[in-house]
Amino acid sequence: MIVDVHSHYGQWVSSSGADSPESFSEALDRFAIDRTICSSARAVQYDIITGNSEVAALIETDSRIYGAITVNPNHRDASIREIEKYSEDKRFVAVKLHPDYCGVSADAGEALAVIKTAVKKRLPVLVHTWGEAEVAATTALARAVGDLPVFMFHMGGDAWREAIKCAAGQDNLCLEGKYISTRYLCASFN
Fold this sequence. Notes:
Helix content is 44%, strand content 19%. It is of the alpha/beta class. The protein has one domain: TIM Barrel (Alpha-Beta Barrel), CATH 3.20.20.140. The protein has a 7-stranded parallel sheet with strand order 1-2-3-4-5-6-7. Strand 1, helix 1 (21-30) and strand 2 form a beta-alpha-beta unit. Helix 7 packs parallel to helix 8 (160-168).
């Protein structure tokens, strides 16, 4: 089984054209992907409510697609409401945090205030990480959430060596693609 735990739906500002449920499913077919966890490009970039709603509609079109609820700590109350709303849907299996786009470190008080709801709902946290500062912040986030799985997407980018060291020393800190992702995330797939 091929599981892509890091996909995006929608158009990025700089790099892709418009998306549709049909083209997304065609991409899964073309690359023989059996399951994917998808977050919204719109939600990551600027509009969590509309973006998460688009992912909710997308997952209804193809049983291979699961959702990640995108949050933005700058919009704490709205982010908490989004987690509360979509966590009731068993096809939403994680919470996505993108510190670069929201300009809030993964271990900042604002981020932790939102992630507390993910902890309560037992939803793993997927964090975009690039560089030593984001690796350190994501490691601190993992320490702050007990045994809840926290995933370093992109393996820290250019700080991948540091990311590997941090993940080796923190049981709930996972690297994108590490075997543990199968244990924690794929258990949600039917």
